[in-house]
Design the sequence.
């Protein structure tokens, strides 16, 4: 049975800088995210991964191309509107919270969440309610990142965008967050885009993978198919570096 497409982008272009010295970051990127899947986007620094996420969530606007949520265009919408169906989880979990507020106050901010729902979601991300009384600096990196995932789930989004969310964590915390992402996908029925420079991590977590090289999609498909039979020299180099490491 074929799954529905939740989110898609078609022929997305983005550049920055003055007209005479324009840097083209994304050059005709297209993608599809299916219901309930985890799509990995990999590439080295400067490949356009984070810029693509900024376009998807509305922080930046594409110069060309179209973005769709459940087959309806939302191109040009800002985060205040895209936040109704997708949520971004950032690399710097500590920096995404107000350091003066308890986690409970941060997560209940806006008044749209009940205490019972908060406790339920905290359990889904593998945390205990006592941690809600703490401020960000009194949590470990892994705990704080889990809190940021909980915040995204409390927004009732269908799609989670994860931007290098494990890169600032130690190996143990990375493994815990990856396990949590798998459980959240299973328990909350969300679809996830997981951006990382770590191909080994993506290969163990994601159903499909898309490889970006200097703003161009050079490989895309089922993860193991791409790993076992890459079509681009760039992907082969990424795989070789993982094996060498």
Sequence:
């Amino acid at each position: 049975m074929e799954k529905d497409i939740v989110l898609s982008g078609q022929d997305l272009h983005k550049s920055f800088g003055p007209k005479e010295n324009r840097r083209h970051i994304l050059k005709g990127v297209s993608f599809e995210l299916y219901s309930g899947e985890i799509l990995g986007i990999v590439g080295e620094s400067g490949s356009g991964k984070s810029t693509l996420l900024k376009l998807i969530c509305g922080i930046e606007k594409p110069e060309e191309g179209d973005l769709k949520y459940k087959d309806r265009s939302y191109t040009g919408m800002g985060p205040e509107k895209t936040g109704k169906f997708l949520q971004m989880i950032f690399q710097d979990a500590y920096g995404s919270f107000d350091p003066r507020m308890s986690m409970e106050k941060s997560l209940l901010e806006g008044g749209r969440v009940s205490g019972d729902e908060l406790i339920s979601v905290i359990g889904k991300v593998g945390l205990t309610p006592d941690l809600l009384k703490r401020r960000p600096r009194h949590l470990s990196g892994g705990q704080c990142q889990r809190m940021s995932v909980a915040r995204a789930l409390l927004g009732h989004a269908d799609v989670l965008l994860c931007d290098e969310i494990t890169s600032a964590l130690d190996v143990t915390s990375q493994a815990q967050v990856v396990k949590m992402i798998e459980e959240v996908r299973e328990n909350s029925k969300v679809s996830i885009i997981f951006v990382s420079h770590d191909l080994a991590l993506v290969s163990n977590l994601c159903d499909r993978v898309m490889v970006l090289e200097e703003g161009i999609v050079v490989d895309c498909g089922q993860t193991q198919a791409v790993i076992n039979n890459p079509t681009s020299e760039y992907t082969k180099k990424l795989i070789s570096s993982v094996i060498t490491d």
